[in-house]
């Protein structure tokens, strides 16, 4: 009989579900944060000098042999010449905790910093809460090279472009931007490049067997959620899920059956979790679910619901019926946690206790 075990000294936190609004930053293959409504200039950022900016960026782009941004339909160059594709401003994290994250800029104004409302949300502790503003000055203008200006917002450690400390600067293709310890690369990509990068990122961040986040993608997402929860005093929980007796399944039914079991568990977990939860194949038969804005009580409800769903969902494989159970360890953010790994360690220890207590159960750290 399955049981759920919690530490009686723990105080339960009621789960909260937060709807996350889209912003002016479209990460290629990742989720995004928020932006002021309507794409209005953020407080303290004056209106851009569009005339000077357009002249500067257009001249530089011409010197590099680049065409201009076409209109909504997309395939004309700076002088309306057919065959030149639309260009999109893109920021790529080249160095830092969120290395390889790619962001397509598609609104007039967005913030870079640690604060939750920032479109480019950094986990870098040396970045200020609202470190810098990025202004897409000719957003929506047909037939123009994208013009993006970065403006420091009085940050503690400053903003650098190509190593030079700046107050504001028009960015050009292949510029580098340093915010805290994070190095970002600015580029102009066409649609073919965007599609290719999107496919590469998808392949690099997805587990081939289950279609879930892989370990590398999970580490980046979890670091971001941990930073968000710490900075905004919000609850955060982690579920570590392990298929019981998975080796026996492989030995008795073959590795193809084991793969079918893992795919089934991935589908069940995706059905039970919320859209904001991140699900990862952590390794072998082990899965991790990150539940933002969810305290102990809500995490235990999710874990027990998932455990029960797995138990009542046998896998049919080549005329064989494979019955499953899973053990789940649950841990929630505590004030003394200084790193995301602190929560994972407690969840892993709770999972171990669930296994030792007889499996097919949920244990709260």
Structural write-up:
With 365 residues, the protein is of the alpha+beta class. It has two domains: 25-198, Tumour Suppressor Smad4 (Sandwich), CATH 2.60.200.20; 234-364, Reverse transcriptase/Diguanylate cyclase domain (Alpha-Beta Plaits), CATH 3.30.70.270. The chain contains seven helices and 20 strands. The strands form four sheets. A seven-stranded antiparallel sheet has the order 2-4-3-13-12-9-10. It is elongated and about 60 Å long. Residues 7-82 have low confidence and may be disordered.
Strand and helix map with partners:
Layout: E1 4-5, E2 25-27, H1 50-63, E3 87-95, E4 102-105, E5 109-113, E6 120-121, E7 132-136, E8 148-152, E9 159-161, E10 164-166, E11 168-171, E12 176-179, E13 182-190, H2 191-205, H3 215-232, E14 236-243, H4 246-253, H5 255-272, E15 278-283, E16 286-292, H6 296-311, E17 315-317, E18 320-322, E19 326-332, H7 340-356, E20 362-364
Parallel strand pairs: 1-20, 5-6, 19-20
Antiparallel strand pairs: 2-4, 3-4, 3-13, 5-7, 7-8, 8-11, 9-10, 9-12, 12-13, 14-16, 14-19, 15-16, 17-18
Helix pairs in contact: 4-5, 5-6
């Amino acid at each position: 009989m399955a049981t759920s075990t919690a530490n009686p000294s723990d105080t339960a936190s009621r789960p909260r579900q937060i709807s996350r609004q889209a912003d002016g930053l479209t990460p290629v293959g990742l989720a995004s944060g928020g932006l002021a409504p309507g794409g209005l200039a953020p407080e303290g950022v004056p209106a851009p000098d569009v005339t000077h900016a357009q002249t500067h960026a257009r001249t530089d782009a011409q010197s590099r042999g680049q065409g201009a941004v076409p209109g909504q339909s997309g395939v004309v160059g700076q002088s309306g010449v057919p065959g030149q594709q639309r260009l999109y401003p893109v920021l790529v994290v080249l160095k830092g905790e969120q290395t390889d994250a790619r962001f397509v800029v598609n609104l007039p104004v967005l913030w870079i910093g640690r604060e939750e409302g920032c479109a480019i949300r950094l986990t870098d502790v040396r970045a200020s809460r609202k470190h810098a503003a990025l202004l897409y000055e000719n957003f929506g203008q047909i037939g123009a090279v994208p013009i993006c200006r970065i403006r420091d917002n009085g940050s503690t450690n400053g903003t650098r472009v190509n190593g030079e400390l700046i107050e504001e600067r028009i960015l050009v293709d292949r510029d580098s931007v340093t915010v805290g310890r994070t190095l970002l690369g600015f580029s102009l990509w066409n649609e073919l490049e965007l599609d290719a990068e999107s496919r590469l990122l998808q392949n690099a961040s997805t587990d081939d067997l289950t279609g879930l986040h892989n370990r590398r993608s999970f580490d980046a997402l979890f670091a971001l959620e941990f930073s968000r929860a710490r900075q905004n005093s919000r609850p955060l929980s982690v579920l570590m899920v392990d298929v019981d007796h998975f080796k026996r399944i492989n030995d008795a039914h073959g590795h193809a059956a084991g793969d079918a079991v893992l795919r089934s568990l991935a589908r069940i977990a995706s059905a039970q979790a919320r859209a904001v939860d991140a699900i990862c194949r952590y390794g072998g038969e082990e899965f991790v679910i990150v539940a933002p804005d969810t305290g102990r009580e809500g995490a235990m409800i999710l874990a027990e619901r998932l455990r029960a769903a797995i138990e009542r969902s046998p896998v049919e494989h080549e005329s064989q019926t494979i019955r499953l159970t899973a053990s789940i360890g649950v841990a929630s953010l505590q004030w003394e946690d200084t790193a995301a790994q602190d929560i994972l360690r407690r969840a892993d220890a709770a999972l171990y206790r669930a296994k030792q207590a007889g499996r097919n159960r949920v244990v709260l750290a």
